[in-house]
UniProtKB/TrEMBL annotation:
Signal peptide (residue range): none
Protein name (database record): dITP/XTP pyrophosphatase
Organism: Ramlibacter albus
Positions annotated to bind substrate: S8, N9, N10, K11, G12, K13, A70, F155, G156, F157, D158, K178, H183, R184
Gene Ontology molecular function: dITP diphosphatase activity; ITP diphosphatase activity; metal ion binding; nucleotide binding; ribonucleoside triphosphate phosphatase activity; XTP diphosphatase activity
UniProt gene name: rdgB
Active site feature: D69
Keyword Magnesium: yes
InterPro entries referenced in this protein's UniProt entry, alphabetically: dITP/XTP_pyrophosphatase, ITPase-like_fam, RdgB/HAM1
Top-level taxon of origin: Bacteria
Lineage: Bacteria, Pseudomonadati, Pseudomonadota, Betaproteobacteria, Burkholderiales
Length: 202
């Protein structure tokens, strides 16, 4: 197994995951390079959407595939926005985008005292489209929603995701430190071990 198709065309995500998968000696190929169309994501859970994306990429490419679905889960909102994280701002009349998502979240939480939240990343890998044993890795980065954005690094909700262990938001941390402690970093490290144990070993 030399190549795995990544069910994403997000350059930041690709670079982050490629670095973490390097020790396996496999190359992650973005699905766009192989002409794979975007998958439908009709489900309400990260794992179901990631599985749908991985199956779609494997189906169209003939390669093993890996996909992730990620988002912000706010305790005070019963885990929402969850799978709708990317479109959060549009629910409140703003155009889609990271800055507007942060703006909308801070407005909705203006009078909320319970600031607990977690960024969650679910990675799913399949050998073939109907693989009966998909590999599933979940990474969580729990923290608190800050009262205002802080920091210059990262993207998404990083400027308002305050991590008590560091006393900083993700956007205030150096990228290498953030990646080591992020939801996607945790999930990717788990997935590398799962692939090593289940697909490449013993």
């Amino acid at each position: 197994m030399e190549r795995i198709v990544l069910a994403s065309n997000n350059k930041g995500k690709l670079a982050e995951l490629q670095a973490m998968f390097a020790p396996l000696g496999v190359t992650l190929v973005p699905q766009g390079e192989l002409g794979v169309p975007e998958a439908e994501e009709p489900h309400r859970t990260f794992v179901e959407n990631a599985l749908a994306k991985a199956r779609n990429a494997a189906q169209h490419s003939g390669l093993p595939a890996i996909a992730d679905d990620a988002g912000l889960c706010v305790d005070a909102f019963n885990g929402l926005p969850g799978v709708d994280t990317a479109f959060y701002a549009t629910q409140f009349g703003y155009p889609k985008g990271d800055d507007n998502n942060v703006k909308a979240l801070l407005e909705q939480m203006r009078d909320v005292r319970d600031r607990r939240a977690a960024l969650v990343s679910t990675l799913v890998a399949v050998r073939v489209p109907l693989d009966p044993e998909p590999l599933i890795a979940v990474g969580r980065a729990p923290g608190l929603i800050a009262w205002e954005p802080m920091g210059e690094h990262g993207f998404g909700f990083d400027p308002v995701m305050y991590i008590p262990d560091f006393g900083k938001t993700f956007a205030q941390l150096e990228p290498a430190v953030k990646n080591a402690n992020s939801h996607r970093g945790k999930a990717a490290r788990q997935m590398v071990e799962l692939i090593r144990a289940n697909w490449l070993g013993p």
